[in-house]
Amino acid sequence: MTKFSDLNLNPKVLKAVEEAGYETPTPIQAGAIPPALEGKDVLGIAQTGTGKTASFTLPMITLLARGRARARMPRSLVLCPTRELAAQVAENFDTYTKHLKLTKALLIGGVSFKEQDALIDRGVDVLIATPGRLLDHFERGKLLLTGVQIMVVDEADRMLDMGFIPDIERIFSLTPFTRQTLFFSATMAPEIERITNTFLSAPARIEVARQATASETIEQGVVQFKGSRRDREASEKRAVLRALIDAEGEKCTNAIIFCNRKSDVDIVAKSLQKYGYDAAPIHGDLDQSQRTRTLDGFREGKVRLLVASDVAARGLDIPSVSHVFNFDVPGHPEDYVHRIGRTGRAGRAGKAITICIPRDDKALDAIEKLIQKEIPRLENPVKLEELPETKSRRDDRRSKSDKPQRDTEKRADKAPREDKRDARSEEKQDRPPRQEEKRNRERNEDRGARVVGMGDHLPSFIALSFEERRAG
């Protein structure tokens, strides 16, 4: 069996790896590190949670151990799709460079430009960035990419989903042609393959798992749910989620709950908090400091349930997540693989449960085609008639069914009054209409005496005669 000591890593890097408690590399690490140390381009294809980060950080640190950075000209570049993933990569560099004097900078949104400019001005060996913030610095004239010797693109398929491919192509054009490129992705869409063919030179292809496969250590299940009424579907669906969490009991030590929309992330998190669950939201609209606090709380066990959008699907490196709940079926089948890959990491057992409503059936079929297996169906733990909302609706219907009887009674009560009104009207008709006739006669007399128009008054200017003046 291959060990890290067999991979020709720098002794100081190897010492840091051993202190971190690792002895045996994962398949992607064992396959990618040797060609990367030889200076070859690498194309790594592996599912999430297989140790891709260390497969490029370890050879990069070894290669960068010799040399010195210059101001505004980083020696290496790592591109990540999300802030969380970039921060995770930065933590890995901190872990493995503890015995080396290498500098790094993290360029992500939500952080002051001034602080980042100061780091770049001093010169960095490793620049870790999201594409948008990197180009912002470049366009402001604060950064040069002509000194990049090693370039890494991590989670390339996620870059494609988030629309970063044009930015990636531009960044490639700003780096030297002689750079070494390490390219990692969980899936190989046609657009990703086009980029690898364009920008990688005879890469060593390392594929340790079939494309878009879920780890065998993850127990999967799907609950098919249909709401009693469309306007009640969302609240009933949240009740199903709570019942699923409760059904797992103590086995659910912590969990990530994925929603498709950021607005739903907030709604689900607030709903769980209302019912006494320890939950917190995380999505792209939150401040970076708030996202960092939430993630730290989840890692430390202070937050049990993390309600997240797909921005967190590939940016979390928490090895001990026991459960993943898909509150929504993801629109892209590949996202399902990445979501459930947050559990069952590093050989641990995990469980992933998805709630599927009728309009998500096509998306579920696409997922099963992608992973080439049928996801077991689970029984819905909630009976709709037991929900408080359903009981209140039943009471409403019962009260509505009683309404006709009540209306009949009300009409019966009103009948004497109506009879009285009819009697008064008849009495009025029988009375001689003397007063009414007198009132009408006076009204007609007044109308006849009233002057309509000009009356007898004739303005003087009308009586004037206008004669043409003759010339004298």
Strand order of the biggest β-sheet:
3-4-2-5-6-1-7
What class would the helix/strand composition place it in?
A: alpha/beta
Please tally the helical runs, counting DSSP H or I stretches of 4 or more residues. Answer: 17
CATH architecture of the largest domain: 3-Layer(aba) Sandwich
Strand content: 5-15%
CATH topology title of the largest domain = Rossmann fold
- Average per-residue pLDDT, rounded, comes to 83
Please give the share of residues in helix: 40-55%
Region (Disordered): 382-472
Catalytic activity: ATP + H2O = ADP + phosphate + H(+)
Pfam families: DEAD (PF00270), Helicase_C (PF00271)
GO cellular component, one term: cytosol
Molecular structure report:
The chain has 472 residues and is an alpha/beta fold. The protein has 2 domains: 204 residues, Rossmann fold, CATH 3.40.50.300; 173 residues, P-loop containing nucleotide triphosphate hydrolases (Rossmann fold, 3-Layer(aba) Sandwich). The protein has 17 helices and 14 strands. The strands form 2 sheets. A 7-stranded parallel β-sheet has the order 3-4-2-5-6-1-7. About 2% of the residues have low confidence.
Task: Describe how the helices and strands are arranged.
Elements: H1 11-19, H2 27-37, E1 42-45, H3 52-64, E2 76-79, H4 83-96, E3 104-107, H5 113-122, E4 126-129, H6 131-139, E5 150-153, H7 156-161, H8 165-174, E6 180-185, H9 190-199, E7 204-207, E8 218-224, H10 233-248, E9 255-258, H11 262-274, E10 279-282, H12 288-299, E11 305-308, E12 323-326, H13 333-340, E13 350-356, H14 361-371, E14 377-378, H15 388-430, H16 434-449, H17 460-463
Parallel strand pairs: 1-6, 1-7, 2-4, 2-5, 3-4, 5-6, 8-13, 8-14, 9-11, 9-12, 10-11, 12-13
